[in-house]
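Title: Prediction job returns without error message
Component: structure pipeline
Severity: low
Priority: P3
Assignee: unassigned

Description:
Job completed but the reporter wants confirmation the result is attached to the right record. Sequence as submitted:
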Amino acid sequence: MSLTSLPPLGAGARTPRRPAEGDGNPATLPTPAESAAYITSLGKLTAAEVLDRCRAQGRVAIQPRCGVGGHEEMKALLATLEAEAAPDILTLTIDSHTRLLRFEEALRTLNLRPADLNGYPLVAHGWRRGREINELLAAPLEIRHGSPDARILFDVSVASGITSFEGGGISYNLPYSKAVPLADSLGAWQDVDRRCGELADHGVVIDRELFGTLTAVLVPPSISLAISVLEAVLAARAGVRCISVAYPQGGHLAQDVAALRSIPVLAERYLPAGVTVHAVLHEFMGVFPRERAHAEDLILYGALVARLGGASKLITKTHQEAYGIPDTAANVEGLRLADRANSPLLDFIKVDQNQVAEEMEWILAEVADLVEPLLERADLPEAIGQAFAQGRLDIPFSASRYARSDLIPRRDAAGAIRYLSTGALPFSATHLRRNEELLNAVDGPEPGFDTLMQGLTGDINHFRHVFQEEEPAAKPRPLIRPHSHPRTQRTEERT
């Protein structure tokens, strides 16, 4: 399929037209074989190789969030992060225009007001500039974005020599888009995954990271992992050889460690041999503490969760998260702090293994309830679409009309995230009863509306309450912010 013949996504959408390269001259993308040869010629580790090496060494790879509009500014940002913090993998976060296939608008903004861009418009800059960034750095790069249709962006990324690409047909649609049918986004991401298979045939393995973080607000582990399992099965069937499953830190130590340790078990259960799977932890993506010391405590705590859970990679945060867009210095400090958790001097830190084992047992059983009926179907994408339409799959606080958002998550008395309402999820009676019993101790069997709203607000502000921080008097936060997410370096993203 040619780049200019891609079908549009969603009602009324226009087929995106591939723009010229950033220098103004039309350019043809390299073939997959040519891109693979270029990546090999770089002589540096791919993202998949870095993850394999870190896992073999028993350490967690560290990766920042970052993305700015201007090319020179992006180069300077990444060079500074590498020189001062030496992250294992670096990030190009993509702007919103590119995510939504508005390539001409991205190019126009880049030319007129680059500071207005909330990320790096790679398609507008072009693959030659992408290669310029790649050749500047020792670390491999990952693309983080949020697009339901990433085919053009993927092709430009690979031509740039970038070896890790985030997203999926569910996780990069329902949390972000209002009117994109699941059949469209699943089909677009199947194309991306097939291209990964083609590149693997040419000797280059692309790390495909799945965004299990979803809406990043009180996400119960089993729904996060179930959706990642379904995306992983589709990716593996299309030829992907390396899959990273990302999970959002919820805030309860045993539950988070159990979720991370469940990832290799799920991979063994549901994925074919020959596919490498890595667990990834996103440091806490909810409301961050305002005081620097508290924020730094939370950053180190998240890094220790990643270590205890056996994660291959950690996506870091900064002490400035509560105030908006962190600066470069804060990003460097956040990376350095998170990497301290890799110290061998911290080998004495343990977690209650019995509690983790119990949480794992329940998580794995709930995931099985959700995915196994769908995996039995001959047409998995169709089964996924029908499941969301019927509520047998769902995510909390979704932006999309194609998810019911009937799920209501709450924290139990210990701070773990449970289901107050499971909607139409096909959980067994035993699983429904356990969630009900754990939450009855919090608000009672039938909490009123005011009690529920106060409880949700408290759950979202969990770590501010842990540190006994008071809410700021001015500009109180909305009750529920389904699209609140971390930002850094002129970007707004949950990725």
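Comment from assignee: result matches the submitted record. Confidence is low (pLDDT under 50) at residues 1-8, 10-16, 20-26, 473-495.
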